[in-house]
Amino acid sequence: xxxxxxxxxxxxxxxxxxxxxxxxxxxxxxxxxxxxxxxxxxxxxxxxxxxxxxxxxxxxxxxxxxxxxxxxxxxxxxxxxxxxxxxxxxxxxxxxxxxxxxxxxxxxxxxxxxxxxxxxxxxxxxxxxxxxxxxxxxxxxxxxxxxxxxxxxxxxxxxxxxxxxxxxxxxxxxxxxxxxxxxxxxxxxxxxxxxxxxxxxxxxxxxxxxx
Length: 211
What we know:
Elements: H1 11-24, H2 36-43, H3 47-60, E1 63-66, E2 70-73, H4 78-102, H5 105-120, H6 125-143, H7 146-159, H8 163-167, H9 172-188, H10 192-210
Antiparallel strand pairs: 1-2
């Protein structure tokens, strides 16, 4: 395979992003060993930036480093999954309550537009995943707590390791849309307590589908 042309930003960051996308696409599958030498040759780089890239992914939870065995794509077990959903539920329900109370009318309209886009994307799973993430991350941005944003971003990366499986289950995508509508209704009514409750229910149902 021809070497990939890399952009001028820090080499290890570019390599980390390339590997991250391959993990999310299941080109590098959970539990699989990462052949540093082969990938370094494929990208036309030395092993040093490859190792630095793997350290970044390990910090995000996407890669697991094993002593004397190298790097592996992280496998998310049942407890990991429950823990991730639990934390996301706490963090994002809190953010939803803040947005219901404090968002401007224009910001709520932004979320309404994203929800409408999500509804239109239901026939295209990849598009649905992309718009769904934009909706959740925009809600967090509006809530305006950068520490929470960073924690959620890292947790969502781990959740992506198997998120496709849950939405592909019969009826789950339609249920997810209904849950988003309930969240939007609570947001537009500026009912902070109900909005937080609806977000918790959304994650509880998502976990059930993923289990």
